[in-house]
Amino acid sequence: MAFCSYTFQVNCSFQRPSVPSKVQDLRGSISSALNPISRELVHFPIVNIPKAIKETSFKLLDAFVDLAFEFVDQPLLPSQSNFAPVEEIGEAVLVTTVEGKIPDDFPEGVYIRNGSNPLFGGLKSTKSIFGKSSHVWIEGEGMLHALYFTREKIRGTWTTFYNNKHVQTDTFKMEKDRKKPGFLPAIEGDSPAILVAYILNGLRFGMENKHLSNTNIFEHSKKYYSIAENHMPQEIDISSLETLGNWNINGAWDRPFTSHPKKAPGSGELVIMGIYPRKPYFELGVISADGKKMVHKVDLNFNRCSLCHEIGVTQKYNVIMDFPLTIDINRLFRGDPLIKYDKDGYARIGVMPRYGDANSVKWFEVQTCCVLHLVNCFEDNDEVVVRACRARESVLPRQQSFKGSKEISSIENNNESSVEPFFVHVCEWRLNMRTGEVKEKNATTEFSMEFPVINEKFVGLRNRFGYLQVVDLEASSISEGLAKYGGLAKLHFKEDEELAKVEYHMFPKGTFCSGATFVPKTQGTDEDDGWVVTFTHNESTNVSQVYVVDAKNFATQSVATITLPSRVPYGFHGAFMPL
């Protein structure tokens, strides 16, 4: 689901609320009535109902929602100002302010980033007799921010244009037409309120939550797609950012779709997966290199809905993460969280042949932890090597405590601190396919870091370098758990060294980044021949920019800093699309 894309920022604090006894009785009645269905989730099949009855029912339910629920704006702290939404600018705008120089061998193309940009001025909460529930920042509608690089052939001068546009999912268009919020918040809040939101959203709209499409953007077979994993992707016209429609692989895929599909080395096939809090909990698919058909699809027979955000690939295998951060609507009937991390639950990594089934997965038990993002996976003789960003405990805020940057020294010395269990390290697992042995270690210790990227030519292959965003713990603490990234890190992986060597490119104080990605040189020969580009925002000047950092001279000043014509809110994943 889409909220796992940035769950480091999610307020998933659920409490049993103090509510009047009549509401408790109503809650009990709802629970009793729905308990048989709850085992299979509150599911809303599409049935053939006469249009007049359907419209009348919708109006009655809408009237009930208007009467029983009050939508209220969620105020932002001053430290959260760049999480506020922006308006679409309309047409692409010429960018004229560039400090430094865009390199001559930088490729022509589009640097594009997805992110949350809520409709109607910001996020909403609802109040009702059932309690309070709130939309969280990752539930904002998706907006694409794009910087276009074109080079004049004769003179060799660069021209850059900036544009932004909402991704027009079906639910985006529905709420725009209504001119007011429609979906009740169904992730954070009091359990009865969330449960009733699930039911009313399903009865009114045929789905429990909005289609967000706010997490990532990817390319397959020269087509471009926006995605959040609570729905299928939307095809995007990369030149105009217009939404062209849903991509369901000619009807072969009808469930959520991972925000991080992976191209299989060699074949160019796209490996995907989808999770859902109703059986089948986890399905895996392989899409043909031309994007026209599903060549393989299988249910892996999970017994829980693990909040799995990313899938890995190697030359021969798919790599599956099954960790004890789970989604379970049955917990709502007990007044417990919809999303919960079980620190005593099992954690395992599965390795399966590309076209395998549930019986072909070789599972490796690993230390219980929480993982959202993979750095890379590859084969090394009998071992499958998995590198990922790992926290020892839940990465859900309010189940954690951000402290200031002074805590870093105590973490480096392996002393106990309240932030250490939630500190995100880069971890490496070596899974021996012959013996079943697992070797596990941290590859970093200095800073908490997330949102890893590599040179995409090395996805599924042995690689030496990874690039990540460095968490500013102090700034994140002031922003009440909305993470801010004050720099970039370049990791050098070497087999004979316990820890990866790390270089840092830190931004000026009060400047934070999002959507970093690696741009390879067209004629590059080394893995790190290229640049890391990222959107940044200076909170003191309220100016947004794009930094272009030479990957080979990582710690030096950026080679180009491009000032954008409007503010770009913090967001999620970015990509560079050569044209």
UniProtKB/TrEMBL annotation:
Its cofactor is Fe(2+). Binds 1 Fe(2+) ion per subunit. InterPro entries: Carotenoid_Oase (IPR004294). Pfam families: RPE65 (PF03055). Keywords: Dioxygenase, Iron, Metal-binding, Oxidoreductase. GO terms for biological process: carotene catabolic process. Fe cation binds at residues 260, 309, 373, 573. GO terms for molecular function: carotenoid dioxygenase activity; metal ion binding. One of its GO terms (cellular component) is chloroplast stroma. The keyword Metal-binding applies. This is Carotenoid 9,10(9',10')-cleavage dioxygenase 1-like. It comes from Nicotiana tabacum (Common tobacco). The gene is LOC107803084.
